[in-house]
Amino acid sequence: MAQFNDLLLPHGRTELCNSVLPGLLDCIADIAKSLRQSQHVSLAGTTNIFGDGQLNVDIAAENLLRAALAKCPSVLTASSEEEPIERSARDGETAENVSAGSEKYTVAFDPLDGSSIIAPNWTVGTIIGIWDGSSAIHQQPSEKQIASILGVYGPRTTAIVALKVPGGKPQCLEIGIGESGQDHEIIRSDVKLADAPFKTRYFAPANLRAAAESPAYMRLITQYVEKKYTLRYSGGLVPDVVHALVKGHGVYLSPVTGASEAKLRRLYELFPVALIVECAGGRAIDPSNGEDILSRPLENCDERAGLICGTAEEVEIVKKALLGQ
Amino acid sequence: MAQFNDLLLPHGRTELCNSVLPGLLDCIADIAKSLRQSQHVSLAGTTNIFGDGQLNVDIAAENLLRAALAKCPSVLTASSEEEPIERSARDGETAENVSAGSEKYTVAFDPLDGSSIIAPNWTVGTIIGIWDGSSAIHQQPSEKQIASILGVYGPRTTAIVALKVPGGKPQCLEIGIGESGQDHEIIRSDVKLADAPFKTRYFAPANLRAAAESPAYMRLITQYVEKKYTLRYSGGLVPDVVHALVKGHGVYLSPVTGASEAKLRRLYELFPVALIVECAGGRAIDPSNGEDILSRPLENCDERAGLICGTAEEVEIVKKALLGQ
């Protein structure tokens, strides 16, 4: 496809346009191929640091992404949900001794999100955040995370890409991923969460069991039913968020209650998703305090939180319902 | 893969084993390929007889299935959700003047179920029922529908196949569909909805808006939340049913209320799904009267009904809750 040169990025982003973004999209094509050939989805016999059972396909996706990033000289640092420690993108290097050009990036990724729905062959995804500089820790997410990608593995392979490069206009694109780099194409150059009125209103209530302990959450669910919202909830963060982006409407809720802890990783899941939702004109907030997901820097790689995101109007309704704000 | 000879079918089913089933599985591989290459999912500018907008991918799947069936001499009659009239599987023939062997089949199919979730790239499916004889109308479904297939188009391509051939043991298998016929393989030869206790209980509430008018449905939803069932609802009948089959537990509910009409086609959706669920040890009933989906013959091709299916114990709970039986 057209290199990312077409995307009206500010000068000085040659590596981002010609190496990092194309390399990651090609890697999404490779992960799709690997998934297509993995009829035997099994536990790999290991657990990641969070105690989740790792699937053989998780490990394959992790290895493909690490290899793709190692080929991008401007990517100094990489970390993943499977190994949440920032380290050099190339073995034997330290972030400090790399003689890189003027562009320096950190990439944080969840190689394969949606483990629980891989066996039944539901759509799953890859989540990637790209940061300016050699670390994401203690950096202001709203300024330093300059791009993010959701890879979507379903009947076809697609990707949603958000770009918010300083000096440039925020953009959100949908890309059709081909078998090889030449075949990728921009399907929509302006992914937008639309304004009211909506033909159909969608809701995706994650962690619905929390409604048993949260009367506010239960009331909200009842209200969606009474107002005839349409339910779509796959349990995969990528397909659930992408559903709203493609339909132009939707709200995703993963509240946090006393009895149910926050599960979504800020660095590997929430930040990239929030950037995409914001670049599409929506909002992404923390249900514990109503603040924007991208407003608070990270202290360490495995911090977690809840999420409310989607159309700005719907997020506001949820905020009022759950926080009384 | 091994021809279906291995499947312990009674004698006299050579065409079913060597032509119909392999031909349909190859066709599922072809539909998967067509979907993978259809980055531009658009309305084809036509509507089917039900007034649904037809997508270009619907038409491609319909054409691939019609072509595959035309190559099976034992398939006399075909009809599809897109064109719900029984007619000869080969143009220019009538079902009566075909000089077929001793095996005679009718095939009814929904070429691509889940139109609303194709654009966001969620898993969708094909639904196929295979009947003994030259028509499905006025036939006893529990006896005459002898096989059914759910094709599943997700990150990989899979199929669930149920066989209930007179004289043989009912079977339910999961098949990994390769790029070509040689690559198909049996992933699980005994797909089973398990017995209690369950690690996790799943529910998939279709037509949830109906709960606004049905206090019984709303109470049932509240009860699932209170009992901490896990919600998984994609809105695609194939992925929703396959989720339960792969996890070994689940209940799918599409109730019918005064304000919301029955939407699922008996011939193209309910009968094939019911056969698969029953062959996996589960139950599939009509929510309007509690009767087994497969108990009542078809009067015409476009009859519709609701559905409750899944683990027998869960179906019983829903029946009591909605019908008081």
UniProtKB/TrEMBL annotation, chains A, B:
Protein name, as recorded: Sedoheptulose-1-7-bisphosphatase
Family of the protein in this entry? Belongs to the FBPase class 1 family.
User: What pathway is this protein a component of?
Assistant: Carbohydrate biosynthesis; Calvin cycle
A GO CC term assigned to this protein in UniProt: cytoplasm
UniProt source species: Penicillium frequentans
GO molecular-function term, one example from the UniProt record: metal ion binding
**Residue ranges of the Fructose-1-6-bisphosphatase class I N-terminal domain?**
28-168
Gene3D superfamilies under this entry? 3.40.190.80, Fructose-1,6-Bisphosphatase, subunit A, domain 1
Q: Which keywords annotate this record?
A: Carbohydrate metabolism, Hydrolase, Magnesium, Metal-binding
State any GO BP term from the record: sucrose biosynthetic process
The record ties this protein, via SUPFAM superfamilies, to: Carbohydrate phosphatase
What the entry lists under CDD domains is as follows: FBPase
Q: Which cofactor does it need?
A: Mg(2+)
- The segment(s) forming the Fructose-1-6-bisphosphatase class 1 C-terminal domain are 199-321
